[in-house]
Amino acid sequence: SRESLYVDPGSWVEALHPDDRASGVADYQSGLAAGQIEFIHRLVRPDGTVRWVETKNFAVCDDNGKVVRIASVGEDITARTQAEKALRASEALLQFRNNLVEATRELANPAEIMEVMCRMLGEYLHASRCAYADVEQDGEQVTILHDYTDGCASIVGHYRLSFFGALAVSSLRSGQTLNSSRTTGRICSTPSASRPSSSARS
Question: What is the pTM for the complete model shown?
Fold first, then answer.
């Protein structure tokens, strides 16, 4: 708050997002030496919400040219930052789709196409595993034909859908994407618009 800054001018550091404190202090110090401080950082509000802020600081001098205080102007740029992030994500997705088309354009073998698609999708999502499976007519027998792995074992083979747990069964049968945590092994379901980590085709 403004009152806390008057009491302790350095208290603004505590409001910085923990991941931005080191860089924020460094930017402030380097800008102070240059006579002009401008940097973008995240602030954590008392209610826990995070906002992106662009801060500009400048020195206020007395008649003798001595710096008597540092004035600061901050602008909430959260909406702009989120829009820029969404635009970058959209551009990256478009580029990925174009790359996928080019990589599979000359391929005729479905198995080769799926192998390339699994690898490229896994790399694009930075996933530990990306798999493609056929589900038999009984809706229970599953054959994982191809998978991309990064630091984990392949799961290519034949399975019963129930092997993956009740949540996996209900999620896939209701058309939801199945996300599996790499670190905890916990499986959670999310709407189909979310990023996929595995897929099934009937």
Answer: 0.59
